[in-house]
Amino acid sequence: GLFLGQPLQVEPPEPVVAVAMGASLRFACRLACAGPGAAAVQWRGLDTSLGEVQSDARGSVLTVRNASLSAAGPRVCVGSCGNVTFQKTVRLVVYAFPDQLSVSPAALVPGVDREVACTAHKVMPAGPDALSFSLLLGDRELEGVQTLGSPEVEEEEPQEDEDPLFHVTERWLLPPLGTPIPPALHCQATMRLPGMELSHRQAIPEKTTALFPVLHSLTSPEPPDTTSPELPYATSPEPPDVTSPEAPHKQGSMGTCCSEIHQAVPTEGGMAPKSSPTPGPAQLPTDLWTGSVVLALLLLSFLAYRLHPPASPRLPLPQSAWAG
């Protein structure tokens, strides 16, 4: 008779076992007979490539190497003790879930981008019962997100001797996030299979616009300008008159000449001198020359006075002198 009892043991014991594409997995099946009869154990595949089988008196080991999609399906272990037969079925699921997520847009513009999309590439299985998406803010799901339709499933372009894979895209409409966008915003894709759950994340950063360097230069302190804005006046052959508006402009007058000379004299570092109450370097020799001339004239007048005193005035003669 056929029994589905406990004497037949399979490792791993789960009825459904997931294995990544390209990986290997071993199934061990053992049977302990209570009577004197020897146990007989063997693996049977149902419309699948069975794999490598090694059997001995204690049981049978099935090895699936470099798992492909064609290796998915049920495996049956059959054992017998004398006339009593036992069997146990295990189903193999082959999946593909590489860490290949992409987001669109690649970076969000605050206040502009409201719709985002997250795509998982080269996945299998692609159904919503196995693959799901979510938007996370930190470690929690973002609230207020609106899903835009069902996930879009498209087949990848297969390479030679490769199993067909898919890329799946989920789209959302974001709630207002404020400015700047929270730095912990992520897209997460999760693959859930019996006895297994895997997740991958992709950050959704805030876009840095090309205006940032310009704004940075406008807000950054400028280094001190080593050239004077009045430097063109100092190098001009005819500098403008910088006298006050009330003073009349007289071409060739001493005031205008001195003003022009004062503006044309450079100082250390190429800076044109500002207006100052003290006389400029060009005015100082003229004042000294004028003072020296005045002092010399005063000295000559004093010497002439001392050397040639004025004659005493003559008194008029008395009338008696005129009479005689």
Automatic annotation (TrEMBL):
The UniProt keyword set, sorted, is:
Cell adhesion, Disulfide bond, Glycoprotein, Immunoglobulin domain, Membrane, Repeat, Signal, Transmembrane, Transmembrane helix
* Membrane topology designation: Single-pass type I membrane protein
Q: A GO BP term, please?
A: integrin-mediated signaling pathway
Recorded GO CC terms = membrane
Specify one Pfam family.
Answer: Adhes-Ig_like
Please, which domain of life does this record's source organism belong to? Eukaryota
Report if keyword Glycoprotein is assigned.
Answer: yes
Quaternary structure annotation from Swiss-Prot or TrEMBL: Homodimer.
Protein name in UniProt: Mucosal addressin cell adhesion molecule 1
